[in-house]
Amino acid sequence: MTNFLKHILIIFLITGCQSLNNIGNNIGSTIGFIEEDPFAPTKIKTDYKNFLKSNWIKRNTNSFKFSELGKKRPAKNLFFASSGDRLFSIFDNLEVIDITTGETLKEVSINESVMSGVAAGYGVFVYVGENGEIFVNNIESGENRWSAKLNDQVLSPALITSRYILVQTSSDVLYVFNLSDGETVWSKKAQPSLLSIRGTSSPMLYEGLVFTSFSNGRLSANRITDGIQLWERPISVIKGSTELEKLKDSDSQAIAFEESVYAANFNGSLTRFNIRDGEKIFSVDLSTSKPLLMWRDTLLSSNTDDEIIQFDAINGNEKWRNSSFKYRKLSNLVIHDGNLLFGDYEGYIHKLNLQNGEILGISKSKLNSIKNIAVISNDLIIQDDLGSIEVLSIF
Prior knowledge:
Thrombin, subunit H, PQQ-binding-like beta-propeller repeat protein, about 400 residues, PQQ_b-propeller_rpt, mainly beta, PQQ_rpt_dom, WD40/YVTN_repeat-like_dom_sf
């Protein structure tokens, strides 16, 4: 009897262990999703055709600033500018670089921290210091033409026209300066948002009107000559009840075509307005803080999940969507030879067919997380989150 009981006990223990193991496996299968990050960057295939060749690279060794506590922090918002065959970017100082060779043609001493980057055009380059002072310098000589105190931070590029320089501050004030002497022509302050945690947009000039989107999620149209406001409209409607759901920052520069102007915002919509009276023509769901792009009769954007979407510019219908790059922290989008190009957080540059969103190519740069890209002729200029720049030939 004793041996019999021993055998029964052994069988029970073996069966119990197997049952517990099965239960554990079932529980693991049931709650396995907890271990997976739903916002993890999508893994990409790298066996597509290469389409870029590196020409030169310039590393930024001054991409960190010191905070009050003496701890390093990355510069908030870097961007470069180009004019003709020259590139303008902030390194230890502001450098004017030959795009073809990478040679530094001129170096302009900067005595203060620059919050973001530089804009260039019409014979001048413009940057804003961390203390809110705008500097306008001559491109040829590098000498300062004029400066003005804004007493506020500027996170987006200035808009330079043949007569004016337009700057939008982080507290939603739009300044319009005379290009030649820096006199303030007019300014506009928008009603501030109760909550704003993102950046700022840049103003856009079209047919004598300045279109500006603000952190309160509204788009305004003002005459460039005197600042008279023609209209101001919300880009989207408030859909949620919490403060985060009500966040409607518009960091995307508006884009205009014929009699329409398009604007988009975070947690909101892509909306088409009539230029003259601000009448809303259509509004479709889109959450983005990246610039819009127009190609033929379509609009392109990357949403906050890093999906690439093409919309019909006439009615707002979605034409295609590519979700292969979700959560890969994409750069802005650019167009070259009928293809769409953009970078990601691993330094990859991707090429899509504009007709259908199909992936055509992938190239690996020598940079870190790519934030800004631009096309000049057959060259692609890219900038990473540390401010380093690489120029590549497109083939």
